[in-house]
């Protein structure tokens, strides 16, 4: 990440992004078919199927922020333009995933608990993560020169990394309405069979779409900066 040329990465992504799109479409057909025909939960009925959107979005919002924060650290330490561009490309998609978590979680919560929102530890820490994502995105677009916005947003991303373990382990550290981990936990996943398979396929489906979006944003940023340099030199 430190020595890779942004233009080389952009060319690579542009060459293979169509494969990501076709892979997403294939996974989408499979995951939707499994979600539609999977048996409803005994207690929650059909509402439990929100899980196949909510959980992948939650995993990805945490994963993307971890990558964004790590890229920001590398960018600050090594002055790596590639790392800053990666963080900039991830920011809007991470924000979208965190908003999806809150939106689907509110619907699921209302159908399960009878309330759209409760101020428990998991929901509150996830809301904070969404605000950090939003702040990062706004900072990136608040300066005339992208070097200044990259630096300021990187500082915010590094600070925001502190919230990640709070989101992840909040259900273990405090008493919350939100259920604990069902897949990545000691003793193995509590989901089994077709439910776990459907969840994992749904996750990779959303992941592929997000990577496709991030690749397009990365390519757009590189092309925009190349055009700006050409314009500057011609003047």
Structural class: mainly alpha
- Tally of strands: 0
C-alpha termini separation: 32 Å
Q: Order of SSEs, N→C?
A: HHHHHHH
* Shape, per Cα inertia axes: globular
Number of discrete helical segments: 7
Whole-angstrom Rg: 20 Å
Strand content: under 5%
What's the pLDDT, averaged over the residues? 88
Helix content: over 70%
Number of domains: 1
Low-confidence segments, given as residue ranges, are: none
**How is the biggest beta sheet arranged?**
none
Q: Which short descriptors sum up this protein?
A:
single chain, 235 residues, mainly alpha, 7 helices, globular
Outline:
The protein has 235 residues and is an all-alpha fold. Helices cover 77% and strands 0% of the residues.
Could you characterize what this model shows?
The mean pLDDT is 88. The two termini are 32 Å apart. The chain contains 7 helices and no strands. The radius of gyration is 20 Å and the shape is globular. It is mainly α and 235 residues long. The protein has one domain.
Architecture blueprint of SSEs:
Blueprint: H1 6-37, H2 51-78, H3 81-113, H4 121-140, H5 146-160, H6 163-173, H7 193-234
Helix pairs in contact: 1-7, 2-3, 2-5, 2-7, 3-4, 3-7, 4-5, 4-6
